[in-house]
Fold this sequence. Notes:
The protein has 196 residues and is an alpha/beta fold. The protein has a single domain (3-195), classed as 3-Layer(aba) Sandwich (Rossmann fold). 36% of the residues lie in helices and 24% in strands. It has helices at 22-33, 71-75, 82-85, 114-123, 150-157, 163-186, 188-195, and strands at 3-7, 40-42, 47-54, 57-64, 88-98, 102-106, 129-136. A seven-stranded mixed β-sheet has the order 2-3-4-1-5-7-6. Strand 3 and strand 4 form a beta hairpin. The radius of gyration is 16 Å and the shape is globular. The two termini are 23 Å apart. The mean pLDDT is 94.
Amino acid sequence: MSYTIVGLGNPGKEYEHTRHNTGRIALDYFANAHDFSPWQNDRKTQALISTGVIKKEKTLLLKPETFMNKSGASVKPLITSAKKAETLVVVHDDLDLPLGAFKIVFGRGSGGHCGVESIIRAIKTKDFVRIRIGIAPTTPSGKIKKPKGEKAIIDFIIGTFKLKELETIKKTSKLISQAIEALIIEGRATAMNRFN
């Protein structure tokens, strides 16, 4: 079974280390850790793609270059059926989880995430795997304290990670890399049991 792993974010240098690009950061880590091919521009998907093999399983990595809200346009040419959707893994930032936490989910709504929403609309199903990566700040006791109001939320998610936060995300990316490997080799149920 060939897998397609999508790291959500915005293209361009200025967005590289922003919170909204957490999916891309994690995917870069995975590509490097598993010696995937160099990223190449693909016109059909309007994305950067990289290919490799995980234990004999052909795997395609995709970073949409369409900007977050149009991520579905990149995924649609590859995921053309409900069966193919089952081999799709979307990695993205999540403001409902604390910084550095992550959760594997399947068949869930977008939770208000514009990139995920765009993919669900484009491929006409929500039955695919998502790896939600927490970016929310927390109080000293560990409670999530999300920014209040739409403008504050947008400013926060397109804001750049502080150095310490970026280190946390890089540590999390190592675990996510293992989780993606488990998804590909051992399947969804095993990966969810082990990493959730």
